[in-house]
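Sample intake sheet
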Amino acid sequence: MGENKVKVVGVRFKKAGKIYYFDPAELEIKLHDKVIVETARGLEYGEVVVAPKWVDEEDVVSPLKNVVRLATEEDSVQVEENQKKEQEAFQICLNKIAEHQLPMKLVDVEYTFDVSKIIFYFTAEGRVDFRELVKDLAAIFKTRIELRQIGVRDEAKMLGGLGSCGRVLCCASFLGDFEPVSIRMAKEQNLSLNPSKISGICGRLMCCLKYENDNYEELRKNAIEVGEFVNTPLGPGKVIYASLLREKVTVELENDRIEEFNVSEVARILSKEEDKQ
């Protein structure tokens, strides 16, 4: 292989979590293998979701950390035990939050694989002084404690649920990363701008507004827009509705007559300035 290529495997630590690259070294690793890897948080247990492959060195965050070994049955048992401990820690933290009367909502608890740290994820309206809470939790669990404030989209990803489409939330089932979504995307797709129609259960704009946006942008490049004047087989008129995907336009003709035409049947009426160009 070329000098600018490196061999990597893609590992995911949570369902629909972000994929991280690691160096497989000389290990024989296959898709869906469980592995122990070295991370900034210590040793972690994950699943290989991208089989060994060669990628450009510039596409990898250096230094590339190693896959330490293939996971064993004992490692799987350790993960199950950690999950049980997480449930217990969640209840203990809830009680402590209530005891300190803190304005925060506990969302999730995560033990690192080697139990060197416990991370408590929470949401809150603003900043929370949780120093006393951390002291209490450290005294109980005798390990490093981290309280991490997350946003509402992250909360929805962790908790899961069903979207208005009736399917499991995209963020909780397959979306590794959140991508920016704007109200302009809804406008481009002629969707209702009613917040209740285009917002997910997190209260933010639905991630799926992004999925077809590129297609709509491409279609709009030469599309006939609402408000334009066109010639039709039945005479001139003004476009009052345009369906990009169906490639049809609804035109208001003379005498308030309204008809629908295929885009191929109509032609823009150019202004004198446009005609000169």
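Comment: The first helix runs from residue 73 to 100. The mean pLDDT is 89.
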